[in-house]
Design a protein that fits this description.
Elements: H1 2-22, H2 41-47, H3 50-58, E1 76-80, E2 86-89, E3 93-94, E4 102-103, E5 112-117, E6 124-129, E7 135-140, E8 150-153, E9 158-162
Antiparallel strand pairs: 1-2, 1-9, 3-4, 4-8, 5-6, 6-7, 7-8
Keywords: Metal-binding, Oxidoreductase, Signal, Zinc
Cofactor: Zn(2+)
Pfam family, one: SelR
């Protein structure tokens, strides 16, 4: 079953990349609508904590079961700690047992980008914020239905915004 999910994820990603490559240049400006943010490294260092900088700007990973949000069960939105872009809803968070917040789908695929990560002697799919290019974590094809995906995200890359009480 895992092999089938891996093949399906690979095929889906191939189709998505192929579709992007075939679009006219003017159609590839989705990121303009989210207000791309670019800052110098000294600006990022001044705004982020040491751990946030390590994760978001240096593609680091916090230790499992140490992040503030890995076991958060409150209702709300998980946004990028670097720029505030909404990334995941609490309804899509699940307990993966990995020690990092895990989600089966982003709020909007325009907000979350992916690229191949060949570090550590393996091939993984890195997840980053499309607005500020901050490293969030990785996505794996072993999550629950309906997507079968597990977005394994560093707590330090996220800011939790509780749902407003009426």
């Amino acid at each position: 079953m895992k092999n089938l999910k891996t093949i399906a994820l690979g095929y889906t990603m191939l189709l998505a990349f192929s579709a992007c490559a075939q679009q006219p240049k003017e159609a590839q400006t989705e990121n303009d609508s989210i207000g791309k943010i670019e800052k110098t490294e000294s600006e990022w260092k001044a705004e982020l904590t040491d751990m946030q900088y390590y994760v978001l700007r240096e593609q680091g990973t916090e230790r499992a079961f140490t992040g503030e949000l890995w076991n958060n069960k409150k209702t709300g939105t998980y946004s990028c700690a670097g720029c505030g872009l909404p990334l995941f809803k609490s309804e899509t968070k699940f307990r993966s047992g990995t020690g990092w917040p895990s989600f089966y789908q982003p709020i909007n695929t325009t907000n979350v980008g992916t690229e191949s990560d060949r570090s550590l002697g393996m091939v993984r799919t890195e997840v980053h914020c499309e607005r500020c290019d901050g490293h969030l974590g990785h996505v794996f094809p072993d999550g629950p239905e309906p997507t079968g995906l597990r977005y394994c995200i560093n707590s330090a890359a996220l800011k939790f915004v509780p749902e407003a009480k009426d």
